[in-house]
Amino acid sequence: MAAGIDDIAIYIPRLFVDARDFAKARGMDPDKLQRGLGVSKMAIVDTNQDPACMAANACLRLMERNKISPKDVGRLYVATESSLDESKAMNSYVIGMLEQIYGDGSFEHCGGIECKFACVSGSYALYDNSNWIRAGEAEGKYAIVVVSDIAKYDLGSSGEYTQGAGAVAMLLNDNPRIMTFDPKITSTSIKNEYDFYRPFGKETPIVHGQYSNLLYMIQIKKALMTYKEKALSSGLIKLNEGETILDYIDFVNMHLPYSNMGKKALAYLLRHEWRNLPRWKKIIDKMGMQEPIPKDPRGTIESVLADEEFMQKDHQFTKIFTMTEEFQEIYDSKLASSLIASRMVGNLYTASLYMGFRSCLEFEFQKGTDLEEKRFGFGSYGSGSSAMVFSGRIMPTYKEMVRDMNLESEIGNRIKISLEEYEEIHENKRGPTENILDSKKEFVLVEIENKPEMRGQRTYVFRE
Ligand code: CAA
User: Fold this and answer.
1) CA–CA gap between residue 450 and residue 271 (Å, rounded)
2) Residue located nearest, by CA, to atom 41 of ligand 1
3) Which residues lie below 8 Å from residue 31, measured CB to CB, with a gap of 6+?
């Protein structure tokens, strides 16, 4: 039985911080954010928004536009790394909100859990729910997977300019109108790491930025190697002399903590895949530079990062490589459209990869590209750390789903906030009711209980 994505809905908070204002306030060159990292705007939650209400808002949009009622939904999974409680799953908050619309107990039959593995957990949730469908357990019902996060870093830290917030809800079934996942090739890698983590009680993560960049690429490369073995042994992809697996992936979607991470990762993977092919010699000749090798090629990530001479040369090599027409051709045709949304909203952690997928669908459709039967490859990464690589094919029916996608109108009228307002929200100096926006047709948080016996209980309402 097939399984895949039938439809996608998004919810992005309307408040944003402009990268230029931000750079000015922190004494940085705005070009570092806009050109260096690919960040133009960072979506920021209002005081009356949290990851649960963003998830519920995305779910409601998904259900309303597909005219689905709770009885059609067998599973509702929420993947997040902005958990609200150590025990109570975010699903229960989401179901509580949806039942304000659909009636008390309307989701009673529906199963689901909150999933955690940093930014990769949404991909595990998609995979597990696809297998629930493939196993025939769904009995005609849909699964909904919602990925929702607030990417929040310490004020003044290097992570602060890679923040953002938002939710993506995906409808899964056995006859999907957008994309069917390729079966039996989903591949993972996993390793105990401390590149980025958030200890209990801490609102912001502890981050080793450059370490996390390199680890992300190494882990995805490992998962890609397993994907390659599976795709070749299952006959899904057949390679001729001088070809690479990436030749058979029409569009590449990467986890996007910031938009340019997609470009960085693509360059890394292409270097790895092309290195032993005849085309590489031609590229190297044109570049006029040999690929640098670290002093200790079998060393650790720390030793590679500490090898300053290698790092500097490797940086230069990557820069020149990304300017070659061979790289540019792949970048423009396979990756660029998936990066547009990330520039506009920032990091969404678990939701970043899927916002990138949606971005690719929307902007390729606008360009008039025919996506039917095209293979999309996904590189999902979660710190801590695990990567997942998988793929899917676009269904002939995708146009009816993609035609109306419009990121700007779906976000709505965006409001730029000042750095003072941003810092007040960031430092939790305003209570839930001191919101900036006047929300309509969405769930908002109105109260968090303080009484000891009810501490942490959250009340949400739907604003008409
Ligand atoms: N004009 C133009 N470009 C400039 C510039 C300028 N004035 N100054 C710097 N740049 C460029 C740099 O050359 C660099 O680009 P390349 O990598 O292509 O060379 C880019 O801007 C960034 O510069 P730095 O690497 O010096 O930036 P940094 O060290 O200040 O911070 C970061 C970058 C490490 C990503 C940091 O923002 C961070 O720690 N972010 C949070 C962690 C993160 O996102 N890690 C990503 C992998 S882990 C993951 O993916 C999980 C997750 O979601 C968090």
Assistant:
1) 54
2) 159
3) none
